[in-house]
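ugh ok so i messed up the first submission bc i forgot one of the chains. this is the corrected input, ALL of the components this time, i swear. 1103 residues overall. if the numbers dont match what u have on ur side tell me asap before i send this to the collaborators (the ones from the other lab, u know who)
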Amino acid sequence: MEKRRGNIFARIDWFTVVLFLTLAVMGWLAICGASHSYIETSFLEFFNQSEKSGKQALWIGISLVTGLILLSIKKDTYRDLSGLIYIAAIAIGILTIFIAKDIKGSHSWISLGPFSIQPAEFMKFATTLMLASYVGRREFNINNRNDIIRSIAIIMLPMIVIVAQNETGSALVYLSLFIVLYREGMTGIFLLMAVSAVVYFVVGIKYDAVMFDNLPMNVGPYAVTVLIQIFSTAMVKFWCKNDKTFLVLAITNIAGTLLSYWIAVYLIEFNIMIIQYLLLMFNAVYMLLRIRLNKEKRNLWIALYLLGSVVFYNSCEYVMHNVLKPHQKVRIEVLLGLKDDLSGVGYNVHQSKIAIGSGGLIGKGFLNGTQTKLKYVPEQDTDFIFCTIGEEQGFLGSAFILILFVVFILRLIALAERQNSAFGRAYGYALASIFFFHFAINIGMVIGFVPVIGIPLPFFSYGGSSFLGFSILLFTFLRIDADREVTRV
Amino acid sequence: MKDHSYDNRKYILSGFVILVLITYIIQIYNLQVSDNDYKSKADSNAFYKKTIYPARGQMYDRNGKLVVYNSPSYDITFVPREIKEVDTVELCKALDITLDEFNTRMERVKDKRYNPGYSTYTEQDFMTLLSGEEFARFQEKMFRFPGFYVRKRSIREYNYDVAGVLLGDIGEVSQKVLDKDPYYKQGDYIGLQGIEASYEDVLRGEKGTEVLLRDARGRIQGKYMNGALDTAAVRGKDITLSLDIELQALGERLMENKIGSIVAIEPSTGEILCMVSAPSYDPSLLSGRKRGKNHKELALDKNKPLLNRAIMGTYPPGSTFKTSQAAVFLQEGIVTPRTSFPCSEGFVLNKFRLGCHPHSSPISLAPAIATSCNAYFCWGLHRMFASEKYSGTKEAMNKWRDYMVSMGFGYRLGVDLPGEVRGMIPNADYYTRHYSNYWRAVTVISISIGQGEVTLTPLQIANLGATIANRGTYITPHIVKAIDGDTIRSEFKTPKKTMVDANVYEEIIKGMRLAVTEGTCYAADIPGLDVCGKTGTAQNKGKDHSAFMGFAPRNNPKIAIAVYVENGGFGAEYGVPIGALLMEKYINGTLSEESEKKAEKIQKRKIYYGKEER
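and heres the new structure output, hopefully the right one now
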C-alpha cells in the first residue's frame, strides 16, 4: 500500500465536482427565480449586489476559493487538527449565544462587517471531522462502551449548544451522524426502534378514529398490533437468525390474524383486538421460553421491544388525547392530514403545495412563476426554495433535481466505501448523512410529508453561511479521498 | 486493516436513500401531474380578479318622472392580519360606533357560523353601506388605520315613498342563487322582489373585471398582461315603467288604514297604470344600512305588507264576475238580451234558495247587471247546465271552464312581476272528485255570482275590466313599458282574444253603464267621464269584501280598474268611490275640489281588522 502521488487535480473525483457545480448553478438560478420581482430586468441584474442572487453569486465565488484552499491541505493535517477545530467551533458556538442579536428568538447569527454568519453551519464541519477522526483511531472499538459513549458525546455536545441558540431544527441534523456509527458496526436495533416508533405513531394516530366498514372497531390500533407482529417477527428472522422460532411465530401470527378476521366477518361479529393482544402475548411468552431452551439472549430484547411497542403506542394515544395542548394537537393533526388549517398552521405547506402543483408537467418556465414571485410561499428563497423549482420547472425539472441530489449522495457513499481508513469512511458517511438529512427533511417538508423544520436545502437555499459550510464539508472530503491509500496490484 | 463485517450495511443505507427518492417523486407526481386542483388554486391565489360593478339601471314612470336611482355608499373592510396596531378608540370615533359595537362586530366577523369564508389573509366586511357623509368622516382619518380598506357600492334611492312592494328591493345574493348561477359571487347584490327581481338581468348590467397580480399580502403588483384580459363593465339598462306614479300615490293614499288592492290597466296596451297593495310601505325602508332591521319588521307585521296582494292575493270576485257570466250565456245562446228571469228576492228551485235584494222582477240582462241581481245569473247557469247543446253536466261545466280560461282566469296571466298566483276556476273533474257523480247545476250555482270555489287575483279582475273595455281582447298586463335600447317581450304586444264576440260585450257594457247611471255604481257617475262599472260584494268568513270593477270612458277607454277592499262591506261603500277617484285623476289629470274632499274622507276611514294574522 502506498499513498497516491501527483497533482491534486489529477487525483480528485471530478464526477463529484461536476455534480456539485451542477447543483450550485441550478440552486443559484432557483434563487434568481425566487427573489426576482415581477418586473422586467436584464439578466445582468442578477449579479447586482443589492439583489439576493448577486449576493449568493458572491458567496458561491468565496466558497470556490475556499474549496481550492482546502484542497491544498493534506488529509493528515485535517486529522491532526480535528480536536482543535472542534473545540474552537464549540467555543464560538457558545460565544454566539451571548453576543448574537435576537432574530425571531434565536441567537445564532453574528455579524462581521457587511456579512452575517451562522457559526452553526461550521460546527457541522468541526463535528464531522472530530467524529471521523475519533472513529478512525486505531484503538477505536464500536463494541467498547466507553468508545460508544464518547462518540455519542461528540455528536451531542454541538446539539446542546445549538439548541441553546434556539435553532432546534439545525440541531436535529446532528442525529443523522448516528448513521456513521451504524455503518461502523453499532447495532441497528436503535435505528429500527426509531423508525418503528415513527411508523406506529403515524399509522396509529392517523387511523385512530377510522372505523372498519364491516367490524365494530377502529383501524388505527388494529393496524399497529399487526405492525408490531411484523416488526418483531422480522427481527427474529434477521437479527437472531433463528429460523425455527421465526417459522412458529410467523405461522401463528398469520393464521391467527386471518382466522380471527374471517370468523369476525363471516361467523360471529366480535372485536378481534382481543385476538391481536393474545397473539402478541403469545409472541412474547414464546420468545422468553426460547431463551431458556436455546440460550438465545437476543430474544429477550425482542420480547422487550414488543412489549415496549405496545406501551409506546398506548402512551402516544394517551398523550395525544389527554396531555397535548389544543394547538400542539392541531399541528400534529394538520401534518397527518386529519385537519385542514389553511390560514394558520398549515398555511406554509398548503401554499407550497399549490406552488409546486401549479407547475404541472413542464413548469411555467424560468422566472415565470406567479406563486413564488408574488410571495405566497413564505421563506421561498431559503427553506422553501424547492417551490420555485417545482413551479417554474415542473415535474420534469423537479424530479431531475431530486435524482441529481440522490446521485450525489450515492456518489458520496461510494466514495466513502472506497476509503481504506476508517477516518475517511466515517467522514464520507457523515457527509452523505448530513446531505441526506437536509435533502429528506427539506423536500419532505415542502411537499407536506414531514413537519416544518427550518433547515436549508444544500446549495439551493439562499444563504452564504450555509453554502460555504456545505462547500467546506465537501472539499475537505475531496482532499481526503484524493489522499486515500490505494492498493497497487 | 479494513473491516468487512458490516459492508452489507451500505446496501441498506443506499436502499433507504433510493426509497425516499421514489416516495418523493411519487408525491410530486401527484401534486403536479395527476392533480389539477392545485393549478386553479394557484390562479385564484395570484390573479386578483377585481370586479368592476356597473351602475344599476334606473326606473322612470310612464310620464318620464325619475322613480328609482342610485347613490354611492361605502363598505369598510379589513384584512385581519394587517391590523396589528390600530387605535381602536380613534377608529370607533371615526365610525361613530361604541367600543362594544366594535367588539361585537369583530367577534361576528371571526365567527365561522356567520362568516364561513373567514380568513386572516383576505378582506373581511367590517361595516357595510355607509352613506357618503359617514364615509367622509372616516376617510379623513383613514391613513391612521392600516389594514382597513374601502369598497364602493351603490344603493337605491327613491323619489317617491310609494310602490315599495312593486318596485322591490336589492340585497345580498343568497347561497341558493350562488349555487345555481355562476354570474354571482358572494356579497353581490341582486334584485329580491318586485321589478328589481323580475328585471334583474336587464337592470344589473354586466360586471367587468380587471385581472391584477396580487402578492400574498394582497398588495397589487400591477395589471396582468397590461390589461389584455380586462373586460369593461356594462351599465344596467334604464327602465320606463307603465306606472303613473302620481296615480299610484293617490291609490296608496286612499287605501291607508285598509287592507286590499287596486289595479288599473290601460286597456289598449295592457300597461299597468297603478298597482296598489295595502298596507304599503316606503321603498327606501329597504335600502341601505337599515334594511335588515326594517325588513324583519315588515316580515313580522301581521298584515303582511311584503305580500303583493294584487297578484298574490286570491279573492272571491263576487258580483264583478257576473259580467263574465253574461258573456258566456249570450255567446252560447242560453239567453238573449231580451230574456228575462224572475227574482223573488232570490233564486228558488225546489227547496234550494239563494237570496237577492229587492228590485223589480222579472228582469232582463242589462238591468240585472245594473242592480246586480243574483237570481238572473243563477237561472242562466241552471239553464246552461240543462241545455240540450251539451251531452251532460260535465261537458257544460268544462265548456264554462274554457270560457273562463280564455278570459285569463284560473291560470297566471304572466305579468312581469315575481310571485303571481293563478287563482281558482273549477272544472268537472274537480267537482267529481268532491261530490262523485252526484253534482248538478244547483251544487255549483254560486260560481255564477263569483262565489264558491271561484277565486281571482285583483289583477285578473282588472284584466276582466280591460277585456270588456276592449270588447273581447286583452294584452297580458305588464308593468314595464320600455327598456332603454331594447324592446319589451312580444307577449306584451300581442292581443289575446276571448271566446266571446265583440257584440256580446256591447250588451254587457250597456248593463255596466246602466249600473253607473241608475244602479249600484251611481257614485261613479262623474260628468264627462262616461264610466262603466260593476260592484262586487263578496261574502266570506268575516264582513263582506267591497269590490269594484270598471272602465272609462265607454268609448275608446283609457283606464280599466279593479278595487278590492277586504272587509269593506258593500261594493258601493269603498270600491266604487275609490275607483271613481282614480279614474277621474287619471283621465282629468287632477281631482276636482269636491273629489279632493271625498278623497281625504276616504283616506281617513279606517277598517278594524283585529289582531289575527292575515
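quick check: Chain A touches chain B through 51 residues (CB under 8 Å). that seems consistent at least. The longest strand of chain A covers residues 110-112.
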